[in-house]
Amino acid sequence: MLIEQPFGETLDQYFTDDLVKGVVLTDALIGTFSSAYEIQANICFLYHLIGNGSGEWKVPKGGMGVLVDELYKLALDLGVEIRVNSKVKSIKAGQHLVEIVLENQEKLTGNFLLSNAAPQVLAKLQGDTPPKSLEGSQIKINMLLARLPKFKSGVDAKDAFAGTLHINETFSQLEKAYNQAKSGVLPEELPFEMYCHSLSDPSVLSPELSQNGYHTLTLFGIHTPANLFDEDGEKIKQLAKERALLAINKYLLEPIEDCLARDSDGQLCIEVKSPLDLEKEIALPRGNIFHKDLSFPFKEDDSTMKWGVETAHPRVFLCGAGAVRGGGVSGIAGHNAAMALLELS
Question: Does the structural domain 77-133+296-344 have CATH classification 3.50.50.60?
């Protein structure tokens, strides 16, 4: 990672190779539309380093769905009532209670509200002015492979895809892509990385698929801010898919399309999700996977917060990515919201 004044002496001298610098830089750009020389990249990089105290990332065996299933069972055992498809129309936090009005006009009340929604969404529901933030800046391409492809280099696909495969992510390529996207065009050389989760954890697929050589393949592209998709989102998604597949195919003996599984209608098992898709489907403001600009994962000296989850109303707390030390998958915001609530109770 490159750090410039006023945040200390530059570390550029430690990374002389364009490729090495680029691979390191990707951890600063996941979902973050920023140049390497801007503070948001440095903050995002810091979040990637503090997992488990060493930067190590882990996922549950069987995928995140297994974790959700276990949390669901535990919640039911504790007497939690779970509602789905219950869209909230408004939230009114009073002196003693919080009232939630659903779109079907049903009203729910409680002593406190823990919100996993983005701060912008929460503010709108409360009738407040939502905070501004950077746009989301990623594109996700999910694929189901009937078989793994073969590489021109002779490297085994199981080795190539077992970790993270970086394409178009040298330092100079990343900066070029950022400047192109900033000027309003989709990067010519779309930077992305790929993961094949089923290689390290076959249980993410059904036994039938896993035993017959099928694999998941996820492509995560960066420097694709939401504004690129505003005018003709489907066209830009198609263009991004074409450029991504063309880039990976340069390294393969056969097109990746020939390795894709087909659904019951004979269509290739591949889908593309843009930032606008994430906003539409799961209410991420402009597709920002962090809900808002990442903040440094600690309280500022003049902050009145104790847990980093407090809002303007003492009965409403953030428990998601938009909290201080939020960011997404760590779960720390949920823990801190629970601790804040226990103190009050």
Answer: yes
Instruction: Work out the number of other CB atoms within 10 angstroms of the CB of residue 121.
Output: 19
Tokens 């010519």, located at residue: 188
Per the omega criterion (within 30 degrees of 0), is the bond before 297 cis? no
DSSP H/E element including 110:
strand 107-110
pLDDT of residue 316: 95
Q: How far apart are CA 329 and CA 125, in angstroms?
A: 24
Taking a C-beta distance cutoff of 8 angstroms, is the pair 148, 215 a contact?
Answer: yes
Work out the pLDDT band at 17, boundaries 50, 70, 90.
confident
**Distance (Å, rounded) from C-alpha 79 to C-alpha 77?**
5
| Whether the predicted pLDDT of 42 surpasses 80 | yes
Give the C-alpha distances (Å, rounded to integers) separating 126 from 120, 123, 263, 283, 312: 10, 5, 43, 16, 11
pTM for the full predicted model: 0.86
Alpha carbons 330 and 323: distance in angstroms, whole number:
11
Paired tokens of 7? 């945040």
- CA–CA gap between residue 11 and residue 18 (Å, rounded): 14
Mind listing the pLDDT tens digit for each residue in 130-144? Answer: 888 889 999 999 999
150: pLDDT strictly greater than 90: yes
Which residue, among 112, 94, 98, has the nearest Cα to 344 in the 3D structure?
112
Mean pLDDT taken over the chain: 90
